[in-house]
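Case 254 in the screening queue. Each case pairs one protein sequence with one candidate compound; here the compound is NAP. For every case the pipeline is the same: read the inputs, emit a complex structure as tokens, and attach any notable structural observations.

Predict complex for case 254.
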Amino acid sequence: MKNMFDLSGKRALITGSARGIGNLLASGLAEYGAEVVLNDRCQQRADEAAQILTEKGYRASGFAFDVTKSIEIKQAVATIEEKLGAIDILINNAGIQRRYPFTEFPEEDWNKIIEVNQKGVFLVSQQVAKYMMMRRSGKIINICSMQSELGRKTITPYAASKGAVKMLTRGMCVELAEYNIQVNGIAPGYFATDMTSALVNDQEFTAWLCQRTPAARWGEPEELIGAAIYLASSASNFVNGHLLFVDGGMLAAV
Ligand code: NAP
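Case 254 output:
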């Protein structure tokens, strides 16, 4: 029981993991024993990110694909399964953000957000789940958001996409649970990354955030690792279709 968080012998694919939260989650899973497969649209960036981990003594490799391109995903997933072995854990992390007032939101930006954040989760999960179903074993973790539940000015399409990822999580849970596949979500509050750099540099926003969040601060990206280890490991084998908020208490407060 003491080893229920151990990921030794497991292989994890993390989308959009050459930088940001995905990269930190990859190193966290590697620290707990998993072999990690890092993904970026650019093979060189994926390889460089993997090399940083292998130099630390972890097992890591890089695979390029775009989460919006079904043919690239199908080929990459088949190659990983054939050459490296089973994908036991999938973290759907790749995501983008755009900010405009609702009535001025460009259609092409709406399309891009929905394509990456929502359709990307669907396409990658579909391919990986086929192999997990054959093995009757797997863990899928979808990176959701506070905006899976809460609206906010200028990011309505992002919130719509993350609300959809919440429902993808529940729907996939319902369809895949009988194959011993657990599909859960991690919903981060506000974390300082490239995606939020405009907000981090905005003192007025930071003051609002600290007042609005019971923990009264930004989240440290490393603080998401524990949730990922839990949902990737046997510690969560009867947890399914759940969204784990890592938000300093923000969702609990009005
Ligand atoms: P980030 O620093 O901007 O990183 C996003 C990652 O996604 C990058 O590696 C990016 O690759 C990759 N990506 C984008 N489009 C892709 C595509 N089509 N195919 C493959 N990879 C793609 O963002 P982050 O803050 O780490 O966010 C990671 C996840 O957490 C996202 O789903 C985000 O919505 C979610 N989240 C973040 C926060 C926060 O406070 N930061 C809060 C809630 C939820 P490139 O380098 O090629 O662009």
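Case 254 observations:
- The first strand starts at residue 11 and ends at 14.
- Residues 15-16, 18-22, 40-41, 66-68, 93-96, 116, 143, 145, 188, 190-191, 193-196 surround NAP (CB under 6 Å).
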